[in-house]
Amino acid sequence: MKPIPEATGAAAEPASRLPTGGLLCVVGARPNFMKMAPILHALREIAPDLPVALIHTGQHYGSDMQATFFDELAMPVPDLDLAVGSASHGVQTGTLMVRFEPVVDAVRPAAVVVVGDVNSTLACALVAAKRNIPVVHVEAGLRSRDRSMPEEINRVLTDQLASMHFTTERSARDNLLAEGVPDAGIHFVGNVMIDTLHRHRKSAQAPAATLARYGLAAGAVANPAGFALVTLHRPSNVDDPVRLADLLGTLAAVSERLPVVFPLHPRTRAALSGHVVPRGRTHPLVTLPAVGYLEALGLMARARVVLTDSGGMQEETTALGVPCLTLRTSTERPITVAEGTNTLTGPERGDILEALDHTLATGGKAGRLPECWDGRAGERIARILVDRYAGAGALPA
Known about the structure:
Blueprint: E1 23-27, H1 30-46, E2 52-56, H2 65-71, E3 80-81, H3 89-107, E4 111-115, H4 119-130, E5 135-138, H5 150-161, E6 164-167, H6 171-178, E7 186-188, H7 192-200, H8 207-213, E8 228-231, H9 235-238, H10 241-254, E9 260-264, H11 266-271, E10 285-289, H12 293-302, E11 305-308, H13 311-320, E12 324-326, H14 335-338, E13 342-344, H15 349-362, H16 377-390
Parallel strand pairs: 1-2, 1-4, 2-3, 4-5, 5-6, 6-7, 8-9, 8-11, 9-10, 11-12, 12-13
Helix pairs in contact: 1-7, 1-16, 3-4, 4-5, 10-15
């Protein structure tokens, strides 16, 4: 585990230079960028004079972060980078609060906008709530009912702190009401992740180009039945050496049916120390470094099937109409199962291979696009934010 770095670069700039009295938008982990981008685009179009500051907590970081995410998504360069880096949940959350609190005190925003369910989401919501700054939670009300997932704790607590809740599916409202959240602050707007997918789908990187970037021939995934895309990063799957070894054996069995492309999340790459990634059997099993958004989108769109434990990919495959096998026993995105292309298999090899064989034999779940996953969720959010604060004079009408 890397120690938390000192705040450097943009983080060393005084927070007092940020615009005051408007919106303070927070991103920290890679999925946050895809969720915040449509909101920022819409705010620029609807209220170009609105003071908006973008804070990058640095929870996910790397030398290629800007080129891979901010440039690809046409997001503005963050106004401040808190450079929190990696650490245990407690240390990371505490350090985030220490570094974010002076920013809130200097800016005194009308509201703090957080997205998703990572440690940055909860930490920044806590700071804002303790300073009596309204918290806006995008992707509110999603529940897996699995309190062993750190993300579930972050989701529940952030929703208790927020005064405005933007939801991606109708069931989220029921979850929030059951937890005592007032109905007046709940707004069903659709899925901002799908906004980003619609905006960038035509620019997605072709799988052959992605493989070529890493010195691999396109023939590695050339197969009449297509290829399987695999992503793993949940602690329950990759932090347990026995579970991880079994899943690697499962992937070898998958390669008996069709080629496998396996981009390695940084957490997974670290967990693989001491493990041997199996060679493909009948077909290749190709591992790649973590790929950028446009590369991942291209791989998903062309895959025959996706095997994953990612929440976002459950949504994206549903939007793309690609069968998805989720290697978990629960999901916080039930609409992807009820209406989309997603099937929960759990992590056991027999269940995964049975679902895979059924998918290859039948074409998998066809699914349909859920309500309001139409590429306009960011616009809906922006209009509600402007309407909410214009009367108080915090934002322009």
